[in-house]
Amino acid sequence: MTAHASVLPSGAFAAEVETLYRDGIVGMKGAFSRSWVDDMREDMMTAFWSAIQRPGGAIGRGPRRWYVETHPEDFRGFVDLITHPFVRGMAEAVCGPEYHIVEIGFDTPFQGAKNQPWHRDFPSPAETYDGHRITSLAFNLTGVDVTPDMGPFEIAPGTQWQDGRTWKHEMFPPVEIWPDFASKGVRKFPQMGDISCRSALTIHRGTAHASPISRPVLVLGVDAPGAGHAALHDMMVTQAFYDALPEDMRGHLVCRVVEALVPIVQKHDIEGLVMGTE
Fold first, then answer.
1. Contact of 164 with 123, CB cutoff 8 Å
2. What is the pLDDT of residues 215-260, one digit of tens each?
3. How far apart are the C-alpha atoms of 37 and 35, rounded to whole Å?
4. Could you tell me which of 222, 221, 265, 261 has the C-alpha nearest to residue 239?
5. pTM
6. Is the CATH number of domain 14-264 3.30.1600.10?
7. DSSP code string of 18-44
8. Exposure pattern of 226-265 as b/e (b: 16+ CB <10 Å)?
């Protein structure tokens, strides 16, 4: 099933949006330098070792796999990321000129992580399962060159349009239809500097991780106005950081401006991922 042609933009990023609407994911090779990614990976792992020591800091997404939501200021490259032409272009083309940046964090599996159940990251809204319109995006950047033993991300293209209202939590399809997703499944092997843009409603999973090298991947969440995912997060920045942002980007951040940053206690705990499948 394809998206209604009326929702697809013309002009810049039209081809990328068409791919996104067809497959549920699209990517750009070499968006950032490897040295930039080295800094990003260092910042992710620094944030991980801090978060894992406090309650609610690192949320389990299966055995030996965690998700950590972070402050924009934890990443030296945050402004580079949100002003990158691919990020800005896709966010505006899909979510509109008043798009909202609602989340930044990262997922990291370590050696021993298991296959996750097939899932989507939140229930599908009527605009998507009925209207065939994508109202939120997840941008992902790998911190390492992904190899087959690193538990690569696996996605079932085209499944972003499935209804899912009868599934557990409207996110977890029943085991009986997992073979349908496995038959479509494509494992992704991005390299440092690549960036992907996907609908978090496209059915996907992390796979078993045998490598002694962890595979941290950055997540930037973007909403169309009214999509409502900001309620699942608590982005905050200091006044000095906010004032230093490019003026045209400040309005895109859904955040609190605070005198001092405090540790994030995560609100979006995907209970069905706590246990691995195999």
1. yes
2. 999 999 999 999 989 888 889 999 999 999 999 999 999 999 999 9
3. 5
4. 261
5. 0.93
6. no
7. HHHHHHSEEEETT-S-HHHHHHHHHHH
8. ebebbebbbbbbbeebbeebeeeeeebbbbeeeeeeeebe
